[in-house]
Write a structure and sequence with these properties.
Helix content: 10-25%
Order of helices and strands: HEHEEHEHHEHEE
Strand order of the largest sheet: 2-4-5-7-6
Largest sheet: 5 strands, mixed
Structural class: alpha+beta
Distance between the termini: 44 Å
Number of helices: 6
Length: 311
């Protein structure tokens, strides 16, 4: 992946044309625990029934860089749970502003080389993590095993670290991401009930999502997903290294157990696990949408205090 000379402006235009195609099956990885005290807000106002909102500092990635492709899987049934995940109301990537800006810089770097970043998951509300935990504790629900964990029994998911009760994604600076060679190829939507293929099968056999070959599919519960697994060689090894190097140059740190999982550091909220839903209007207005008149067309958060959150 050494090609240079691809103009950012022309490539960005190609990416914009591919955005609609990439908005199909789409962010996250198995929930892994984070450290520190938990202060996840649960309501906007006691007894109000309103959804919780984010602190100032969260943005929609599309407002910072509209060229990054989105394939947000947890808004669809194409994930290890097999259904849309709690808290994912809209296919939007929300991140802390610092993480979004860093991802923009990494995207600029990759566009020059003829590639685009594609996000699978960004901020993840605590209610989504709770959904994962309920699923993991149900031994009878194995509808997606053939693709996502064919060699791992559900009884091992907690012990092996694939699922935990807290996720770094809920702090807002973690993203699940891959690379796509430009121009991005069109992808087909996942059809619930279709025959599933092992996430560690050869790329030509796995579900097509237009990404480069990383050796496994996204959210593959297998040691082959470990970033430096020695069995991953050739093109998949070069692709993993290229992704990690581009993101590390902008301050992202990879989780060694998942080639797709990166956290921007220092985190804005290292000790806080949020629970506001993933939606255009919570926390940020959709760029150019109805809330733009309130001054948040750039993705800024309309913030008000939340019980249990720190100012």
């Amino acid at each position: 992946m050494t090609g240079r000379g691809v103009a950012v402006r022309s490539v960005a235009a190609a990416v914009a044309g591919a955005l609609a195609l990439a908005a199909g099956p789409a962010a996250p990885s198995p929930a892994l625990a984070g450290a520190g005290p938990v202060t996840a807000p649960t309501s906007a106002r006691a007894g109000s029934g309103a959804e919780p909102v984010a602190r100032r500092g969260f943005v929609a990635l599309a407002a910072v860089d509209p060229t990054v492709l989105h394939d947000l899987r947890y808004t669809t049934a194409h994930n290890f749970v097999g259904e849309p995940v709690d808290g994912y109301h809209r296919p939007v990537c929300l991140l802390t502003r610092s993480a979004a800006r860093a991802l923009h810089r990494a995207q600029t770097r990759m566009l020059r080389r003829g590639y685009s970043l594609k996000v699978y998951d960004c901020y993840r509300p605590q209610r989504a993590v709770d959904h994962f935990v309920r699923w993991a504790r149900d031994p009878d629900d194995e509808r997606m095993r053939a693709e996502f964990h064919p060699r791992v029994d559900k009884s091992r998911l907690f012990a092996d670290g694939y699922v935990a009760e807290r996720s770094g994604h809920s702090r807002g600076s973690t993203v699940d991401v891959t690379l796509v060679r430009l121009p991005a190829a069109p992808t087909r939507p996942y059809v619930p009930g279709e025959t599933l293929v092992d996430c560690a099968a050869p790329r030509a056999e796995r579900f097509p999502d237009a990404s480069v070959d990383m050796g496994t599919g996204y959210d593959c519960f297998d040691t082959l997903s470990h970033t430096d697994d020695p069995r991953i060689q050739g093109e998949p090894r070069r692709n993993r290294d290229a992704l990690r190097e581009a993101l590390a140059a902008e301050g992202f740190v990879n989780l060694p157990q998942e080639w797709w999982h990166f956290t921007y550091r220092p985190e804005d909220f290292p000790d806080t696990y949020f629970d506001f839903p993933v939606a255009w209007r919570s926390p940020a207005g959709r760029p150019g949408g109805p809330s733009a008149s309130r001054g948040d067309a750039d993705g800024r958060v309309r913030w008000r205090p939340v019980p249990g959150s720190a100012r």
